[in-house]
Amino acid sequence: MINNPSDTPDGPVNTAVVANTATATYNSQIVNLRTTKTALQTEVDHLTNIIKDLTTKYEEQVEITQTLETNWNTHKDDIDKVYLTIVDLQTKVQGVDSQIDTVKQIYNARVREVQATITGGPTAAYSIRVDNTNQAEDLTTSLQEVKTHYEVLATKSREEAFAQVQPQIQEMAVTVQAGPQAIIQAKEQIHVFKLQIDSVHREIDRLHRKNTEVETQITETESIVKQQNDDWTYKINNFRLQLETIKKQITQYSRDYQDLLASKMALDIEIAVYKNLLDSEETRYVPKAHISPQPI
């Protein structure tokens, strides 16, 4: 019995189609795996760049915090110096007030002394002695003598009192002239000190406001840095987990790729064996198909 030649190509054709289909499928999977690997590598590079950017921002925030702390220490030293200046100025003002009180006391004592001298001098000098032995003399003569004696005594008392008081008056005049001038100078000095104190107080208020602003900035910066640190820590941990997952996926894909290559090689070997078998079968059956039957 001879096989139909039309049936012989069916076997090889179907096997080749199956082999080509399997090979195309494996090649497509290999291409997809390579594409996935490239995409994963790109994502890993992107995440690495993000981590570098976050690290740079963190270092910048740390530098800002250190700068703010340095400014705070500088302002604190300035406040201490201003406070010491205020204490020094207050001490000087107290010394000037003491000098003013002393000058006032000296001035008042001098005035009382002059007033006492002027008031008590003529009274001490006006002592009239009356001789009873002269009562018989003429009353007019006695009165004239008494008047003359009184005038002489009054003149002498005035001269003596003026001579005694004149140095004190001159000294007091100098003191009185120097007193208001010293008071004016002291008032001017106090006014200058008050202006300096007011200026220092304004500077202290400005430094306090600046200090408050710096403290607020430090608090806000610390809060922002803490929040960013928490966010960055959370993101970095997530990125690390994602990197571990990606590495595991890449490892799995590599294993799958190796398995696919091994399967492809096995299929290629099997296809080659089947092809050799089919070729040998075709070689064995084709010569018999050309033998014609002998007549009986």
TrEMBL record:
Keywords: Coiled coil, Intermediate filament. GO terms for molecular function: structural constituent of cytoskeleton. Residues 1-285 form the IF rod domain. It comes from the Eukaryota. One of its GO terms (cellular component) is cytoplasm. PROSITE patterns: IF_ROD_2 (PS51842). GO terms for biological process: intermediate filament organization. Pfam families: Filament. Residues 197-263 form a coiled coil. This is IF rod domain-containing protein.
